[in-house]
Write a structure and sequence with these properties.
Blueprint lengths: L1 E6 L5 E4 L2 E5 L3 E4 L2 E7 L10 E5 L8 E4 L3
Parallel strand pairs: 1-7
Antiparallel strand pairs: 1-4, 2-3, 2-5, 5-6
Length: about 70
Protein backbone atom coordinates (compact mmCIF):
# COMPACT_ATOMS: atom_id res chain seq x y z
CA UNK A 1 0.00 0.00 0.00
CA UNK A 2 1.03 3.56 -0.71
CA UNK A 3 0.07 6.74 1.16
CA UNK A 4 -1.15 10.08 -0.23
CA UNK A 5 -2.32 13.41 1.19
CA UNK A 6 -4.41 15.51 -1.21
CA UNK A 7 -4.18 19.13 -0.12
CA UNK A 8 -6.91 21.71 -0.67
CA UNK A 9 -8.05 24.79 1.26
CA UNK A 10 -11.37 23.20 2.28
CA UNK A 11 -12.71 19.73 2.98
CA UNK A 12 -13.74 17.90 -0.19
CA UNK A 13 -14.25 14.34 -1.28
CA UNK A 14 -11.20 12.93 -3.06
CA UNK A 15 -11.69 10.65 -6.06
CA UNK A 16 -8.93 8.29 -7.14
CA UNK A 17 -9.52 6.79 -10.57
CA UNK A 18 -13.19 7.92 -10.36
CA UNK A 19 -13.75 6.15 -7.02
CA UNK A 20 -14.34 8.10 -3.79
CA UNK A 21 -11.35 7.41 -1.54
CA UNK A 22 -11.64 9.86 1.37
CA UNK A 23 -11.33 13.55 2.16
CA UNK A 24 -8.80 16.27 1.41
CA UNK A 25 -6.03 16.90 3.95
CA UNK A 26 -6.29 13.36 5.35
CA UNK A 27 -4.03 10.35 4.82
CA UNK A 28 -5.34 8.13 2.01
CA UNK A 29 -4.19 4.66 0.99
CA UNK A 30 -3.84 3.64 -2.64
CA UNK A 31 -2.14 0.84 -4.54
CA UNK A 32 1.22 1.58 -6.15
CA UNK A 33 1.06 2.91 -9.70
CA UNK A 34 -0.37 5.68 -11.84
CA UNK A 35 -3.58 7.25 -10.51
CA UNK A 36 -5.89 10.11 -11.50
CA UNK A 37 -6.92 12.40 -8.63
CA UNK A 38 -9.94 14.75 -8.69
CA UNK A 39 -12.12 16.50 -6.11
CA UNK A 40 -15.86 16.55 -5.58
CA UNK A 41 -18.24 19.35 -6.57
CA UNK A 42 -18.20 22.25 -6.96
CA UNK A 43 -15.43 22.16 -9.54
CA UNK A 44 -13.86 25.45 -8.51
CA UNK A 45 -10.34 24.05 -8.25
CA UNK A 46 -7.29 23.83 -10.46
CA UNK A 47 -6.07 21.77 -12.18
CA UNK A 48 -9.19 19.76 -13.07
CA UNK A 49 -7.28 16.52 -12.38
CA UNK A 50 -3.82 15.38 -11.41
CA UNK A 51 -2.25 12.21 -12.81
CA UNK A 52 0.58 10.96 -10.63
CA UNK A 53 2.61 7.79 -10.25
CA UNK A 54 2.53 6.84 -6.55
CA UNK A 55 5.43 4.65 -5.41
CA UNK A 56 7.83 4.34 -2.46
CA UNK A 57 5.70 6.20 0.09
CA UNK A 58 5.08 5.46 3.75
CA UNK A 59 2.99 6.86 6.60
CA UNK A 60 5.73 9.32 7.56
CA UNK A 61 6.47 10.39 3.96
CA UNK A 62 3.26 10.27 1.93
CA UNK A 63 3.00 11.59 -1.61
CA UNK A 64 1.51 15.10 -1.58
CA UNK A 65 -0.89 16.30 -4.25
CA UNK A 66 -2.18 19.87 -4.20
CA UNK A 67 -5.16 21.54 -5.79
CA UNK A 68 -5.71 25.31 -5.65
CA UNK A 69 -8.77 27.53 -5.89
Amino acid sequence: MEYVVVKFSEERDVYVDDQRNGKTNEMLRVSAGLHTFTLGDPQNYSPSQIDQNIVDTNVLEPAEIEFTV
